[in-house]
Specification:
about 250 residues; alpha+beta; 6-stranded mixed β-sheet; 3 helices; elongated
């Protein structure tokens, strides 16, 4: 708002002008203009509602007809094809056929065609009966593949799930392989239990830069003994997955 004394713009809501100290009075001009504007709008709306014939206004669009424009297309003359004369065919005289007597030729009697012998049946090889294995492949448990073990004094326990009750001549055959000086060395054991502790001396047998050990398990049935010691047998299950562990 403006101060009536000094005409300075001051914030609305003050009672004294901060510039000249004159008392501030609210001007009624803005409210009066607003009321006058509202009254004019109300009067216009009443006049439009009261005196304008809205029924007539709504019916005007249906009474207005726009003139239709007809476009006359100029016909384009179409060229007609001139008929082409077809040459008349002239009949060509044909010569009179002359019949020449030809002596009949004797045809020798046809010799019987030898009948081909039916092909001999191919002998199929006899089906080989694959022995059915008694157990499923053992499922390895610990350690997980690519496990890292530090120190030669660490105890490494290899374990797997039982495949069922083993007979007296059935064993778990564990195979353990490692590298030393570029060559692969494999060993292992036959055991009834489902776990085995890796011997500590294998830590020193592996090469310094070749610390990867691989192992798997198969159920075997003992069929004999080797001359140098150890068992011989036939597999009773597929070989399990091959896992590796790193022993640094």
């Amino acid at each position: 708002m403006r101060c009536r004394a000094c005409q300075a713009r001051v914030r609305a809501g003050l009672s004294i002008c901060p510039y000249c100290g004159a008392p501030l009075r609210r001007s009624w001009r803005a409210p009066l203009l607003t009321l006058a504007l509202l009254f004019a709008v109300a009067a216009s709306a009443y006049a439009l509602w009261k005196y304008v014939p809205w029924q007539t206004v709504r019916s005007l669009p249906g009474r207005v007809h726009l003139p239709l424009l007809a476009f006359l297309a100029t016909p384009t003359p179409t060229r007609t094809r001139t008929p082409t004369r077809v040459p008349t065919r002239t009949a060509t005289p044909t010569g009179t056929p002359t019949h020449t007597a030809v002596p009949p030729t004797e045809t020798p009697p046809a010799s019987p065609t030898p009948t081909a012998k039916p092909p001999e049946a191919t002998r199929q090889p006899a089906a080989t009966n694959t022995p059915k294995l008694r157990f499923a492949a053992p499922r390895l448990l610990q350690p997980a593949t690519q496990t890292e073990v530090r120190g030669g004094s660490s105890q490494i326990k290899l374990s797997w799930e039982s495949t069922g009750t083993l007979a007296d001549d059935e064993w778990y055959s564990l195979s353990l392989c490692y590298q030393a000086d570029g060559a692969v060395h494999c060993g292992g054991t036959w055991i009834k239990d489902t776990q085995w502790i890796v011997p500590a001396e294998l830590y020193t047998k592996a090469g310094q830069n070749e610390r990867v050990f691989q192992w798997d398990v198969t159920v075997m049935k003992q069929t004999g003994e080797r001359p140098g010691g150890g068992r011989e047998g036939a597999p009773q299950s597929p070989t399990s997955e091959t896992r590796t562990f790193l022993w640094y």
